[in-house]
Design goal:
By secondary structure, the chain is of the alpha/beta class. It folds into 5 domains: 59 residues; 100 residues, 2-Layer Sandwich (Beta-Lactamase), CATH 3.30.450; 161 residues, 2-Layer Sandwich (Heat Shock Protein 90); 113 residues, Rossmann fold (3-Layer(aba) Sandwich), CATH 3.40.50.2300; 136 residues, Rossmann fold (3-Layer(aba) Sandwich). Helix content is 49%, strand content 18%. It has 20 helices and 22 strands. The strands form 4 sheets. Strands 6, 7, 8, 9, 10, 11 and 12 form a 7-stranded mixed beta sheet that branches. A 5-stranded antiparallel beta sheet has the order 2-1-5-4-3. The chain has a 5-stranded parallel beta sheet with strand order 14-13-15-16-17, sandwiched between helices. α3 packs antiparallel against α4 and α6 packs parallel to α10. Bound molecules: adenosine-5'-diphosphate (ADP).
C-alpha cells in the first residue's frame, strides 16, 4: 500500500464522512421538523378527540335526559288519564246519588247524558236514552201523560217548553207529574252550546208550603176570632163601665159627705182609667191584626194640633203647666192625612207630656220644609213635629224600650203614673203606617222631647194673610210667660200689627196712658178671672174704650164670671192663627157689645131633644144629666124608634147612640137624612154618642151624616154644651139665664 493511496483514501474517507455528517445533519433537521409537525398533529388530534369525547358525553347526557322526560310524560299522561276517569266516575257517582234529575243536551238538542233520576222520570219509555232529541222527549212526556198539562193541549205544552229554552234567560218551571210528585226544572246554557237541565224534586217543599199555608190560614182565622172577641168583649165591658162612670159622675154632683165624695170620685176615676185601658187594648189588637187602615183626606194640621191642645188644656191648667203650640208661620196648614189617626198620635204624645210634667211647660212645635219626594201630583212637606216638656224625663237605659209593648219606665219617679204602656207602641205603629218615624230625646229631671217626622202632601198652599185686620194697627200683649208671649207676638207681627209686650195688666195700663193709640189689648193669662177681668175693669175705670181680648184655658168658665161682659172676646188658648185673625177682624173696630137683653121666655116653646139609646142605665144617666135643663126629652130604644120619633116628635136635635139593636145609629141617621131630603125638611142636628172611642170611627160616623161626635162615658158638660149650642130660634134657652154649665 502506498502513502498516496492511503492519503487518498483518507481524504476520500474524510470527504465521505463529511458528506455523511452533512447528510446526517440534514436528516436530523428534517427529522426534527417532521417531529415538530407530528407533535402539532398529535396535539390537534388529541384536542379533536377531547372535543369529540365531550360531544359524545353531552349527547349521551342529552339522550339520557330525553329518555327520562319521555317516561315522565308518559306517566303524567297515564296519571292524567286515571284522574280524568276518576273525576268522571265521581261526578257520575255524585250525580247518581242525588235524588234530583240531571241531564246534558248537546248542541243539536239531543240528550248527551243523564243520571238515573232523570231517566227514571220516563220509566217504561225505552226510547228515552242518550241520543233522543229534546223535542221527542217532550212529546213523549205529553203523550204518555207523564205531566199534568193543566188542561192544555199536548202540542201547545211542547211548543211552550221548546220556546222556553230559546228565551234569553230561562225561567225555572214547576211541573206536576201524574205520579203526584212536583218537579222544578232549572235549565242553563253551558259552554260549547250544551244545555244543562236540572229536575229538582220539590214534592216535600210543596207539601211543607201547603202545611205552612194552612197553618197560616188557621192562625189568621184564630187572630181574626181573637180580634172579634176582643172587640166584642171591649164593647160588652164598656157599656156597663159607661153606666158606672156616668152614675158616679151624677153621684158626685149630689150632696155628699166628704168621705162619700172621695169614694164616688174614686169610682169615677177608676172607671175612666179602666175605659182607657180597654180602649188601648182593643186598639192595639186591631193594629196587630193589621185591620187598621188610614183614611187620608184634606185636613187642617194647625187646627188639629190646637184641638188636641185644647182637649188637654184643662189637665195642664190644673197642674199649672203652660201648654203652647208654635206652628211655623210660613208652613201650609192644610195637608192630606188621616185626621183621626194623627189626632190619636198627638193626643198620646201631648197627653204623656202633660202627665209626666209637674212644672214648667209643654210645647208643641211644628216646622217643615217643602219636599218634592212622595208627591207625584203636587207638593209635599216634610214636617217635623216635636212635643217638648219640662217633666221627669226618661233615663237613657229606658229610652229604647218605651216604644215597645206594655213598657213603662218602672222606677221611683213614676210609680204614681197610671197607664197601660201601650200608648207609645200604638203611636209608633201608626206613624210607621203613615210612612213617618218617631224618636225621643230626654234627660232625667230635665224633660223629654218626642219628635215625629212625616211627609204629607199639601192639600192647599199657605194662604197669605192680607195685611192687618181693618182698623187695627197697634196691639198690646199682656202675658207673664215668655213662651206664650213670644208665640203670640210672632203671630200678631205676621198679621202686620205693631206689638207692644207687657208683663202685667198694670204695665199695659201705664203704656196705654202714655200712648192711647192702640186698637186692641190681648191678655194671655193663667189667671184670667183675676188678672184679665181686673184689667177689663181697670180699663173701663180709666175711661179707655179699647177692646180687651182674653185668651184663656177654659173660656166657658170665665164667660160665666161677673165682669166678663166688659171683655170684648174670651177665646180659648192656644188658638190657630187664622182663628185669631178672624176673631180680631170681627172685633174691630166695633166696640164691645153690652150683653143682649134677656128675651121673653114665656112666648117660646121648650127645645125638643130626642135621645136614642138602648141601654136603660145610660138612659137614666142621660136623663139625670139634663134634668136641670128646660127641655122636652124623649128616648128611643133603637134606631127604628128614633126614625119614627123624628117624624112624630119633630125634635130640634138628636143624640144618637151608634151601636143599637135592630137599626144602628148610622143607619137611623142615614134614614133621617134621606127623609129630610125627600120632604125638603131642614137638617136636624144629630150628635153621635158612642162607646167606640176609637180614632178613625169618628170620621166614619160623621160620614154617615151625623154632625157632631161625643164619646162615652157621657159628660154632663159636653151634653149641656151641645144642647145649648144647637138651640134653634124661637125656643126657650135650655139653660136659665146666668146659669152656666159647671165646666
Ligand atoms: P202609658 O200608657 O203607660 O203612658 P206609653 O206607651 O204612652 O204608656 O208610655 C210608656 C212609658 O214611657 C210611660 O209609662 C213613661 O214611663 C214613659 N214616658 C212616655 N212619655 C213620657 C214623657 N213625656 N216624659 C217621661 N216619661 C215618658
Amino acid at each position: 500500500m502506498t502513502a498516496t493511496t492511503f492519503a487518498e483514501r483518507l481524504a476520500r474517507e474524510r470527504r465521505l464522512r463529511l458528506a455523511a455528517e452533512r447528510l446526517l445533519e440534514q436528516k436530523s433537521r428534517e427529522l426534527f421538523a417532521a417531529n415538530a409537525q407530528l407533535a402539532i398533529h398529535a396535539r390537534s388530534l388529541s384536542d379533536q378527540i377531547v372535543e369529540q369525547r365531550q360531544a359524545v358525553a353531552s349527547a349521551l347526557t342529552q339522550a339520557e335526559l330525553l329518555k327520562g322526560q319521555n317516561s315522565r310524560v308518559l306517566s303524567d299522561l297515564e296519571r292524567a288519564h286515571t284522574a280524568a276517569v276518576m273525576a268522571e266516575r265521581r261526578l257520575w257517582d255524585s250525580l247518581e246519588t242525588i235524588r234530583d234529575g240531571f241531564a246534558i243536551f248537546d248542541e243539536g238538542r239531543a240528550l248527551a247524558a243523564a243520571n238515573r233520576a232523570y231517566l227514571g222520570l220516563f220509566k217504561g219509555l225505552d226510547e228515552v236514552r242518550p241520543g233522543i232529541p229534546y223535542r221527542r222527549l217532550l212529546e213523549l212526556c205529553a203523550e204518555a201523560g207523564l205531566v199534568d198539562l193543566e188542561g192544555g193541549a199536548p202540542a201547545d205544552w211542547v211548543a211552550a217548553m221548546l220556546a222556553r229554552w230559546e228565551a234569553e234567560t230561562i225561567e225555572p218551571r214547576v211541573l206536576r207529574l201524574s205520579s203526584g210528585r212536583w218537579i222544578k226544572l232549572i235549565d242553563r246554557q253551558a259552554r260549547g252550546g250544551d244545555m244543562v237541565s236540572l229536575a229538582l224534586d220539590i214534592t216535600e217543599t210543596i207539601a211543607r208550603e201547603r202545611e205552612l199555608e194552612e197553618a197560616r190560614a188557621r192562625a189568621e182565622a184564630a187572630s181574626r176570632a181573637k180580634s172579634a172577641f176582643l172587640a166584642n168583649m171591649s164593647h160588652e165591658l164598656r157599656t156597663p163601665m159607661n153606666g158606672v162612670v156616668g152614675m158616679a159622675e151624677l153621684l158626685c154632683d149630689s150632696a155628699l159627705s166628704e168621705e162619700q165624695r172621695l169614694y164616688a170620685e174614686t169610682i169615677k176615676s177608676s172607671g175612666e182609667a179602666l175605659l182607657v185601658i180597654i180602649n188601648n187594648i182593643l186598639e192595639y189588637s186591631k193594629i196587630e191584626a193589621e185591620r187598621v187602615m188610614l183614611r187620608p183626606e184634606p185636613m187642617d194640621l194647625e187646627r188639629l194640633l190646637h184641638e188636641v191642645a185644647m182637649l188637654l188644656q184643662p189637665r195642664a191648667t190644673a197642674k199649672g203647666l203652660a201648654l203652647a203650640v208654635d206652628y211655623d208661620l210660613f208652613l201650609p196648614t192644610r195637608f192630606v192625612a188621616d185626621p183621626g189617626r194623627l189626632r190619636q198620635v198627638l193626643t198620646n204624645l201631648v197627653g204623656n207630656a202633660v202627665k209626666f210634667t209637674e212644672a214648667g211647660h209643654v210645647l208643641i212645635r211644628v216646622v217643615g220644609i217643602e219636599s218634592a219626594a212622595g208627591a207625584a201630583e203636587g207638593t209635599a212637606c216634610q214636617l217635623h213635629i216635636t212635643v217638648e216638656d219640662t217633666g221627669i224625663g226618661i233615663a237613657p237605659e229606658h229610652l229604647e224600650h218605651i216604644f215597645g209593648e206594655f213598657n213603662q219606665v218602672e222606677d221611683q219617679t213614676n210609680r204614681k203614673f197610671e197607664g197601660t204602656g201601650l200608648g207609645l207602641a200604638i203611636t209608633r205603629r201608626l206613624i210607621a203606617l203613615m210612612g213617618g218615624e218617631i224618636w225621643v230625646e230626654s234627660a232625667p229631671g230635665e224633660g223629654s222631647c218626642f219628635g215625629v217626622r212625616l211627609t204629607l202632601p199639601v192639600a192647599e198652599p199657605v194662604a197669605e194673610i192680607a195685611g192687618a185686620p181693618p182698623g187695627l194697627r197697634r196691639a198690646i200683649v199682656v202675658d207673664d210667660q215668655l213662651l206664650n208671649r213670644t208665640i203670640l207676638e210672632r203671630q200678631l207681627t205676621a198679621f202686620g200689627l205693631d206689638v207692644t209686650l207687657c208683663r202685667s195688666g198694670a204695665a199695659a195700663l201705664k203704656r196705654l196712658a202714655e200712648d192711647p193709640d192702640h186698637q186692641v189689648i190681648l191678655a194671655n193669662t193663667d189667671a184670667p178671672e183675676m188678672d184679665g177681668l181686673a184689667l177689663a175693669a181697670a180699663l173701663r175705670a180709666a175711661g179707655h174704650a179699647v177692646p180687651l181680648v182674653l185668651l184663656c184655658a177654659n173660656p166657658a168658665a170665665v164667660r160665666a164670671l161677673p165682669g166678663a161682659e166688659l171683655v170684648a172676646a174670651i177665646l180659648p188658648r192656644p188658638l190657630p192663627r187664622r182663628d185669631l185673625y178672624s176673631r180680631l177682624a170681627s172685633l174691630c173696630p166695633a166696640p164691645p157689645q153690652p150683653p143682649a137683653a134677656p128675651a121673653q121666655p114665656a112666648e117660646r116653646r121648650a127645645m125638643r131633644v130626642l135621645a136614642a139609646e138602648d141601654n136603660r142605665t145610660n138612659q137614666l144617666v142621660f136623663r139625670k144629666m139634663v134634668q136641670d135643663l128646660d127641655i122636652e126629652l124623649r128616648f128611643a130604644s133603637n134606631g127604628r124608634e128614633a126614625v119614627e120619633l123624628w117624624d112624630s116628635f119633630r125634635p130640634d136635635m138628636i143624640f144618637m147612640d151608634i151601636s143599637m139593636p135592630e137599626m144602628d145609629g148610622r143607619q137611623a141617621t142615614r134614614a133621617i137624612r134621606a127623609a129630610e131630603a125627600a120632604r125638603g125638611a131642614p137638617r136636624t142636628p144629630v150628635v153621635a154618642l158612642t162607646a167606640h172611642a176609637m180614632a178613625g170611627d169618628r170620621e166614619e160616623i160623621l160620614a154617615a151624616g151625623l154632625d157632631h161626635y161625643l164619646t162615652k162615658p157621657l159628660r154632663k158638660t159636653a151634653i149641656v154644651e151641645h144642647i145649648r149650642r144647637l138651640q134653634p130660634l124661637g125656643t126657650r134657652p135650655p139653660l136659665a139665664e146666668g146659669a152656666e154649665s159647671d165646666a
